[in-house]
């Protein structure tokens, strides 16, 4: 089980024991560049979630003051998911005195050094799944049960071993193989074995290659350019590009390639995003650098930030409607 999934399970299990709670997902993506505007919005999200009211935060300093006064006597639970910068902790949960007795703050991060300035009660290291745990997670996606269907035990064991116990890969491959015939499984296993053990991105790229043309294009656009954007905006942009997201997006969700967050933003796992950038890089090399859509994500973000303009990116040219 990955960090975010584990935090979400714990949050749902115990949130009723608190006066209020807030689960802020994918902070790394939401607070792009850690500028004060995005941090202020995150402070608002925490206050709104807990108080069930629309709270306006004027600045990050004002947000700190509100957190320290409004929540001082409340027992709350707050999850800060995927933190990657010290400022995110400082402005969202930087002082224990902001919160009432019994409050619990959970932080998920890939950089444990961010926790050094703070008094931490307990640190839990999420390790790769092994043995029965890995097989069970894979089978939940592949067979909709915790064990392999008769005749698929050896194939399941082999594929689980080649994923390296990575929860994302276990779920993605399980969903891809769900309801497929034995020959399909054997073919997939052969392809997985072509990559060295450490080649996680290459193995994930196999999953991408099994998508249909429309699904591939939509997944690339979302992963590389639209990650973190509101679902409705994403749908509008993709439709403008002549694609059919209403059909493709549910399929991508079922394959664990994208998720829709509680705030209706569209999210893609970092590894899958890396894989998509690698796909574009290879495509660019094959075409002498002429057909990569946009080299840097920021270029695309700057273009579509002027809503309600809708933009399409084709080849290396940018068109606006």
Strand order of the largest sheet: 1-2-3
Shape: globular
| Cα-to-Cα separation, first versus last residue | 43 Å
**Beta-strand proportion:** 5-15%
Q: What low-confidence regions span 5 or more consecutive residues with pLDDT below 50?
A: 294-299, 306-321
Please, what is the average pLDDT?
Answer: 85
Give helix and strand order, one letter per element, not per position: HEHHHEHEHHHHHHHHEEHHEE
* Main structural class: mainly alpha
Characterize the main sheet: 3 strands, parallel
Rounded Rg: 21 Å
Q: How many H/I helices?
A: 15
Could you give the count of β-strands?
Answer: 7
The percent of residues in helical segments reads 40-55%
Number of domain modules: 3
Describe the protein in words.
This is Toll/interleukin-1 receptor (TIR) domain-containing protein. GO terms for molecular function: ADP binding. Residues 1-145 form the NB-ARC domain. With 321 residues, the chain is mainly alpha-helical. It has three domains: 3-115, no CATH class; 131-209; 213-320. The protein contains 15 helices and seven strands. The chain has helices at residues 3-14, 27-30, 36-51, 60-70, 86-93, 131-142, 153-162, 167-177, 182-193, 200-209, 213-226, 231-240, 245-254, 270-286, 297-304, and strands spanning 20-24, 76-83, 104-109, 259-260, 266-267, 311-314, 317-320. The strands form three sheets. It has a three-stranded parallel beta sheet, sandwiched between helices. α11 packs across α13 (245-254). The longest helix has 17 residues, at 270-286. It is globular and about 60 Å long. The N and C termini lie far apart (43 Å). Mean pLDDT is 85; it is low at 294-299 and 306-321.
């Amino acid at each position: 089980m990955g960090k975010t999934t584990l935090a979400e399970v714990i949050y749902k299990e115990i949130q009723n024991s608190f006066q209020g709670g807030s689960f802020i997902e994918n902070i790394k993506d939401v607070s792009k560049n850690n500028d004060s505007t995005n941090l202020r919005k995150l402070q608002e999200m925490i206050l709104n979630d807990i108080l069930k009211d629309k709270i306006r935060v004027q600045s990050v300093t004002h947000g700190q003051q509100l957190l320290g006064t409004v929540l001082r006597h409340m027992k709350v639970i707050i999850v800060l998911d995927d933190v990657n910068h010290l400022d995110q902790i400082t402005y969202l949960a930087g002082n224990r005195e902001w919160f009432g007795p019994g409050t619990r703050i959970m932080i998920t991060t890939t950089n444990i050094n961010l926790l050094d300035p703070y008094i931490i009660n307990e640190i839990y290291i999420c390790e790769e799944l092994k043995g029965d745990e890995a097989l069970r997670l894979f089978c939940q996606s592949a067979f909709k049960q915790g064990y392999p269907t008769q005749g698929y035990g050896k194939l399941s064991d082999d594929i689980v071993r080649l994923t390296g116990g990575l929860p994302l890969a276990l779920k993605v491959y399980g969903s891809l193989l769900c309801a497929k015939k034995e020959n399909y499984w054997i073919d997939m296993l052969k392809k997985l074995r072509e990559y060295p053990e450490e080649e996680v991105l290459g193995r994930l790229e196999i999953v991408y290659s099994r998508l249909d043309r429309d699904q591939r294009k939509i997944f690339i656009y979302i992963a590389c350019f639209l990650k973190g954007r509101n679902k409705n905006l994403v749908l509008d942009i993709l439709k403008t590009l002549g694609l059919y997201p209403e059909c493709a997006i549910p399929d991508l969700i079922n394959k664990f390639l994208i998720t829709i967050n509680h705030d209706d933003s569209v999210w893609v796992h970092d590894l899958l995003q890396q894989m998509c950038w690698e796909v574009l890089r290879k495509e660019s090399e094959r075409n002498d650098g002429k057909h990569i859509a946009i080299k840097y994500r920021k270029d695309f973000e700057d273009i579509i930030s002027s809503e309600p303009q809708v933009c399409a990116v084709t080849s290396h040219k940018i068109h606006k409607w």
